[in-house]
Amino acid sequence: MDYKIALIKGDGIGPEVVGEAVKVMDAIGEKFGHTFAYVDVLMGGCAIDAVGKSYPEGTAEQCRACDAVLLGAVGGPKWGHATDPDKRPETALLSIRKDLGLYANLRPAALRPALADSCPLKRDKDIDLMIVRELTGGVYFGKRDRYQTEDRGEEASDLMAYSEKEIEHIGRRGFELARLRGKKLASVDKANVLETSGCGAR
Length: 202
Prior knowledge:
three-stranded parallel beta sheet, two-stranded antiparallel sheet
C-alpha cells in the first residue's frame, strides 16, 4: 500500500520526535511492503518565523490531500507573549482541530514495568486507561470578553458552549473504544453544577 503522510514537525522537540517517527514508519513499510510519501506542512512557531502566521493559508488543504497527519509539537517561549492571534502557535492547533474535525484526543495511560517503581500507583500493575477528551467545543472556542467592573477592576470571561452533536460524538467515540477494551467507560463531568455537562443527556 502507498500512503501520503503530512508531516507537521513544528517547534522545540517536534522535529526530533517526528524525525524518529518517520524512521519507525519507514522500517514498518520495508517490513510489510508499504510505501510512505511525506509532505512537509508548515505550522506553529516555525510558520510564524517563516511566513508571519502560525496557521498559513492552505494548511488544512495540504493535510486533507494526505492519508494521515503526523504532528510533532508547536509553540514555545519565543512566541508565548504575542497578542495577535496569528502570531500565537496555539491558534494553529485550535484551527486545525476545527478545520479537520479532530474532535477526539486519545490519551493512553499504562504502567510499564520499567517505570513501575517511579509511579505512585505501582501496587496496581494493571493500569491501562484511555482518556478521551473532546477537542472542538467548549471554552477554547467560545466567545471571549474583557470588561471593567466598578469594584473588582478588569474582568475577563470565556464562554464554555457545547452542542448536543459535540457531546454525542465524543460519547460515541468513548463507547466504541470501551467495546474494544475492558468494556468499561466512566464519564467525568460536573453535571451537578454545569449545564454544559448535561447537554445531550435529556
